[in-house]
């Protein structure tokens, strides 16, 4: 995200026709995108709202253009801001598609950068998963802000031992955090992403089940991040809790920051060598 726009790009192993249908069919959209949807391209209507959209108390979108299998563009107006513009372009590539998202007219102070980044990372990953017929990530609920703790969940279609190994491998961690990680895999060891703030030391380590480490914030405060892994039928049910906040606003900011990282961790492990980062 730059100061005025957000751009993401995803390769989808599905034809443009399938992708465009996922973006415009109301039943499909309710499966992967939004809680409530009203779409009628012939009547120039494209609206969504509900718990899974920032400021989702009512529809806030106006359709601007729709070219089947190529482009979808609409305005999205938030409180106390000028209309922003969302454009999704679809380009066929080999037997699949490449979808590029552009959300311009930002920043929207009333929503915040973290919320929009969270929304679009989850949405683009879920568009790809839905179009390919694989399991999507749980939607992010914007209607109930964090109170004390930041909690997020996902399901990754690989066993817990693979997820746990990826959490302790500096190379893998660097891929989904875009940092240069240093990890000493033992209680008391370093868990460092190479930033001024962030993970500091491991406080709990239970192979294939739990990883917990402290997190130092820029203001000197310290919280704890705990990854809990549970296996079922070859998949991993992952729950991440960051606790120790004294300010619910900061807790909510952290809750909105985590999904973009979990999206990439999930995609890296499920896609293997085919993985490409979403960020443009």
Describe the structure.
The chain is built from six helices and 14 strands. By secondary structure, the chain is of the alpha+beta class. The protein has two domains: 128 residues, 2-Layer Sandwich (Alpha-D-Glucose-1,6-Bisphosphate, Chain A, domain 4), CATH 3.30.530.20; 125 residues, START domain (Alpha-D-Glucose-1,6-Bisphosphate, Chain A, domain 4). A five-stranded antiparallel sheet has the order 1-7-6-5-4, covered by helices on one side. The termini are close together. The mean pLDDT is 94.
Average pLDDT number: 94
CATH H-level superfamily title of the largest domain: START domain
What string, H for helix and E for strand, traces the elements in order? EHHEEEEEEHEHHEEEEEEH
List the domain count as a whole number. 2
Structural class: alpha+beta
Helical content (DSSP H or I, runs of 4+) = 25-40%
Radius of gyration: 19 Å
The biggest beta sheet is recorded as:
5 strands, antiparallel
Short overview:
This protein has 280 residues and is α+β, with helices and mostly antiparallel strands.
Describe the secondary structure blueprint for this structure:
Elements: E1 5-12, H1 16-24, H2 26-32, E2 36-40, E3 45-49, E4 61-67, E5 71-76, E6 84-93, E7 96-104, H3 113-132, E8 150-156, H4 160-168, H5 170-177, E9 182-183, E10 191-192, E11 198-206, E12 210-216, E13 222-232, E14 235-243, H6 248-271
Antiparallel strand pairs: 1-7, 2-3, 4-5, 5-6, 6-7, 8-14, 9-10, 11-12, 12-13, 13-14
Helix pairs in contact: 1-3, 3-6, 5-6
